[in-house]
Prior knowledge:
There is one protein chain. Helices cover 39% and strands 13% of the residues. It is an alpha/beta fold. It has a single domain, classed as Alpha-Beta Barrel (TIM Barrel). The strands form two sheets. An eight-stranded parallel beta sheet has the order 3-2-1-10-7-6-5-4. Helix 6 links the parallel strand 4 and strand 5. The longest helix is centred in the middle third of the chain and has 20 residues, at 154-173. The protein is globular and about 45 Å long.
Amino acid sequence: MEASRSLSRRRFLAVGAGAAAAFTAAGLVPSDAWAHGGHRHGRRKPLIPKRRIGIQLFTVRDLLAADAAGTLAALAEIGYREVEVAGVPAGQTAASLRALLDQNGMRAIGNHHFTGPALVPLFGDRPVEEILDEAETLGQKFTGFAWFPEPRPVSKFEALAERFNEAGALAKEHGLTFFYHNHDFEFTTKQADGSPVFDLLLERTDPKLVMFELDLYWIIYGGENPLAYLSEHANRFFAYHVKDRVWKDRPDADDFEDAGPGRIDFRDIFAVGDDGPDKHYFIEHDQPLLSHPDLGTPRAQLTTAKVGIQFLQEVTWK
């Protein structure tokens, strides 16, 4: 669980921009009050293009369920132009959600919704064509698969690699790219030689058909270093989930944190992965109330969204 020790421990922006962004989001200081050291106003080149900064809508799921239109408008006002969908919200259709995104100048890049015959008998029976039609309606470029229940023996990952290639071929016929999103179990489950089964997925899937979305929290939580994977396979990862860890684990709770104030050195990770294709950077936090217990769930989710985008906008090349 302490693989983050192998990452650089420089708090390049963790206390400076990240924590200050949290104060800004809370209305305690104006945003320009922490523009010091030449990090703003073009004096240093931003590492992340603003057009590539997005949010996984799971982060604001309660707000979205209560008021999809208002939530997307609020995210657009904060500055988001890209989102990753966590399923079409209740009360919405793919078409109505697309209309709301269009109204706010936003685009759905991907969705964690791929199941169907390409994955049967492992994970359900939703028709593939229904999923791909939904993706096309939303205007996505990517269609993804993100999680499956236990048991998770190595043999299941071997079967998955075959299914992913099939799913990738079907997605390609619709002009889409199939991807897989990791959690920690792909790294804690080991092959006979001791290597993570995530390596098996990389090796046995066709790079022309299957991409990966790297959740930076979960790979580190699972005991591996993202720098190693990005150094060797940068072009297999089209996106990151940017989710941080607290400096000291909470007792009896997950150690999720807003992006920036925590202990993951995102700048080094992003710099190493920069030689791959254009990346998408999705802010995500599974439980924003852990980071903002005094705000209540709705405000906590929106505050996490604010802190995250401000942090990513401040990450610069050295």
